[in-house]
């Protein structure tokens, strides 16, 4: 049986696409190899959002020429956004590549590999499924949870993007917006929850522009019929909360600020399943730059919307994405971004140096902020956001928090750290001194003992300790059975983009 390995670059959408490739290949009779060295087929799932990410693919393929030479029948597949962007050109430029497959063509991968095995020529398939969009479902194994035992899973609700942010290649690599029927989304979430998943993250490029293509959702409370920014996202959240009561947490990423409408704010105020954290990319705090970026909101509109959200859900935290050094960004524009970061008080921030991308409207503008200035602005940005996070984490010491336990820590800390997870606001918490208990997938109450730079140290409260199950009693009744029933999450090698 041929063996495969997948290496993933880039965002959560790519991590999710890699999971679907695992499903598709396994169903076609392939088995997963321990790593590229043992693989007959190697898939590189690529990212092209910044130039650096794209360069990573090129150097990786260069390195893999040797891997291919070691055995003549080895197959190298390039998937993801660089595949979509470059298509056939990749085959011409890099002879080591055998198959190029776009994000919408994942189901065709086994067929393409089969043709190649029968002597076919290298091939590129990068066609958007605009007429009949396909959304591949997760196939959870009962008891183990989806994605190999993790208590958290991703569910795609839409793909593509109809915005035209002037810096962004995504509308080009992922195509126009296509939405998935709400019944299908609810069914997938229900199946995942039945298999042991506790937290779902809804995925989409502008996840909150969602509309049900079959018109199956009632209008959400607070939704205005004549607001062009209104969508059916709040209605979808309500439908999920109502139909899947066993779900502990429902996150989503990434929303566009212009669809943070009153109906969505109201859903946050009323649905307990929505955690008190939202990642809301802002990109810049300068109106002049926001206009050039074609973001379609002003700083004041963004601030007003986030204020309304925080007023509706006290204690809600926000994180964001910011680009520094966009064409024409002056010191004053950057100062406006820094002041916005402090005004909103983000508790997390991904910062990126502007990078010119093919096919984007901003190519018309000169990339006139020097690499040095970009680097220096990024450093100042991180300094500001680290200070905000440190003060926030420090302020949580002595409080009790609810943590969804997502896994075991790789390294035991001095205090015997074993479990880690996240609060509803997404803070990372390490739980000490609970090594004898089985906490995976549980929502437990902890007392925060200390703050680290990016996370918190905590101990179970007495009540949580009394309610927790000892490790040996889980699953089949013996320790070996317990381990087998809860396999560790399959570790997909993820090569993160630069920045935050
Ligand atoms: N809507 C997507 C965003 C895709 S890109 C989502 O769901 O996450 C992720 C982030 O990369 C953007 O928010 C932006 O901050 C950054 N980015 C995109 N294009 C970029 C470019 N050309 N240069 C630098 N950063 C970029
Ligand atoms: Fe990119 Fe803007 Fe869409 S950042 S993904 S074009 S919302």
Structure notes:
35% of the residues lie in helices and 21% in strands. The protein folds into 3 domains: 125 residues, Rossmann fold (3-Layer(aba) Sandwich); 244 residues, Alpha-Beta Horseshoe (pyruvate-formate lyase- activating enzyme), CATH 3.80.30.20; 68 residues, Nucleic acid-binding proteins (OB fold (Dihydrolipoamide Acetyltransferase, E2P)), CATH 2.40.50.140. The protein is an alpha/beta fold and 500 residues long. Helix 2 links the parallel strand 3 and strand 4. The site of S-adenosyl-L-homocysteine has 18 residues, from strand 13. Catalyzes the methylthiolation of N6-(dimethylallyl)adenosine (i(6)A), leading to the formation of 2-methylthio-N6-(dimethylallyl)adenosine (ms(2)i(6)A) at position 37 in tRNAs that read codons beginning with uridine. It is an enzyme of class 2 (transferase). Keywords: 4Fe-4S, Cytoplasm, Iron, Iron-sulfur, Metal-binding, S-adenosyl-L-methionine, Transferase, tRNA processing.
Number of helices: 16
Shape: globular
Major sheet, described briefly? 7 strands, parallel
CATH superfamily caption of the largest domain: tm_1862 like domain
Rg, Cα atoms, Å: 23 Å
Task: Assign the CATH architecture of the largest domain.
Answer: Alpha-Beta Horseshoe
CATH class division of the largest domain: Alpha Beta
End-to-end distance, in Å?
41 Å
How many distinct beta strands?
22
**Protein structure class:** alpha/beta
How many domains in all? 3
Briefly characterize the structure:
Its cofactor is [4Fe-4S] cluster. The chain has 500 residues and is α/β, with parallel strands linked by helices.
């Amino acid at each position: 049986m041929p063996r495969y390995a997948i290496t993933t670059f880039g965002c959560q959408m790519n991590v999710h696409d890699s999971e679907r490739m695992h499903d598709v290949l396994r169903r076609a009779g392939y088995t997963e190899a321990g790593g590229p060295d043992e693989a007959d087929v190697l898939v590189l799932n690529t990212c092209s959002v910044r130039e650096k990410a794209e360069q990573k693919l090129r150097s990786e393929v260069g390195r893999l020429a040797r891997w291919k030479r070691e055995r003549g029948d080895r197959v190298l597949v390039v998937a993801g956004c660089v595949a979509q962007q470059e298509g056939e050109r990749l085959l011409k430029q890099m002879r080591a590549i055998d198959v190029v497959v776009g994000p919408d063509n994942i189901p065709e991968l086994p067929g393409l590999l089969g043709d190649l095995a029968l002597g076919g020529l290298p091939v590129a398939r990068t066609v958007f499924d605009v007429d009949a969009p396909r959304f591949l479902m997760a196939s959870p194994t009962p008891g183990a949870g989806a994605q190999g035992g993790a208590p958290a899973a991703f569910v795609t609700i839409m793909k593509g993007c109809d915005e035209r942010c002037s810096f962004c290649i995504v509308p080009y690599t992922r195509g126009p917006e296509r939405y998935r029927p709400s019944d299908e989304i609810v069914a997938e979430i229900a199946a995942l929850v039945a298999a042991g998943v506790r937290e779902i993250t809804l995925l989409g490029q502008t996840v909150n522009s969602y509309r049900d293509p079959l018109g199956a959702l009632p209008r959400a409370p607070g939704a205005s019929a004549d607001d062009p920014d209104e969508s059916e996202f709040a209605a979808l959240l309500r439908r999920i909360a109502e139909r899947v009561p066993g779900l502990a947490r429902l996150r989503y990423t990434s929303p566009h600020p212009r669809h943070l409408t009153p109906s969505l704010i109201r859903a946050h105020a009323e649905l307990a399943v929505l955690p008190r954290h939202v990642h809301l990319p802002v990109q810049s705090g300068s109106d002049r730059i926001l206009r050039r970026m074609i973001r379609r909101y002003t700083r004041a509109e963004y601030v007003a919307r986030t204020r309304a959200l925080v007023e509706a859900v006290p204690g809600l935290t926000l994180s964001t994405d910011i680009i520094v050094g966009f064409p024409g960004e002056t010191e004053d524009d950057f100062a406006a971004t820094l002041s916005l970061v402090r005004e909103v008080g983000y508790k997390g921030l991904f910062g990126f140096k502007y990078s010119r991308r093919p096919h984007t409207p901003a190519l018309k503008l000169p990339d006139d902020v020097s690499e040095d200035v970009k680097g220096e602005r990024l450093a100042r940005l991180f300094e500001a956001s680290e200070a905000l996070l440190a003060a926030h984490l420090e302020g949580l010491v002595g409080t009790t928090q609810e943590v969804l336990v997502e896994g075991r820590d790789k390294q035991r800390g001095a205090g015997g750290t074993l479990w880690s997870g996240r609060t509803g606001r997404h803070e990372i918490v390490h739980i000490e001194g609970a090594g004898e208990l089985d906490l995976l997938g549980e929502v437990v109450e902890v007392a925060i003992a200390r703050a680290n730079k990016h996370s918190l140290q905590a101990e179970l409260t007495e009540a949580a300790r009394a309610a927790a199950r000892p490790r040996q009693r889980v699953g089949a009744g013996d320790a070996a059975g317990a381990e087998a029933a809860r396999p560790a999450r399959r570790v997909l090698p993820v090569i993160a983009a630069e920045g935050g």
